[in-house]
Task: structure prediction
Amino acid sequence: MTRHPGCNVVGKFENVTGMEIDSTQSHIYLISGNELWILGGRQHWHASFSSK
Amino acid sequence: MLAPAKIWTSTGVAAAVIFAAIWAHSVRAEPSPEFHVVSNLKLPPTVVPNDYHHLHISQTDTEQFLTVIDSKNVMTIVDVTNGSSPTLAGQVQLPASVAHGDPVFLMGGVALIAQPESRKLGLQRPSLFWT
Result:
């Protein structure tokens, strides 16, 4: 990913078994092990990838 | 036929135009998105480690829920209406007749399990009360 312009990997989640993006594309929901993580963007952004 | 000087000049101009276009594009490019952790919630441990899957979002005009299912067919429901403060809404044991990965919709405290057309046998899937 670091080869893509503007991408900078600063961390990772392990044992991710699920990921979804809400309909407003304002949050990413991750299931990592027994934890739910909610990620958001500092700026308005549009997710352009699929969790499938 | 072009003289070598003219060839070099035109090549130089073309290169300058290309570099200028690249520079202009980089200046106009939108700032890269940055992500940060809004919140996290520890879910009840599953019998089998790392067993939560089939994450699904259900939302109405005013509420938003996440559901995950484990291999024991236990559905865990998280209220994420307030993204900065997710709360565990409940856990229900799904009937064995509910297949793994069936889409789940939460409406007014009732979990509805959708049944794919291919598996319909003329029976209506029951609603599951979880509140």
Remarks:
- Chain B has a mean pLDDT of 76.
- Chain B touches chain A at residues 29, 31-46, 49-57, 59, 64, 66, 68, 78, 80, 83-84, 86 (CB under 8 Å).
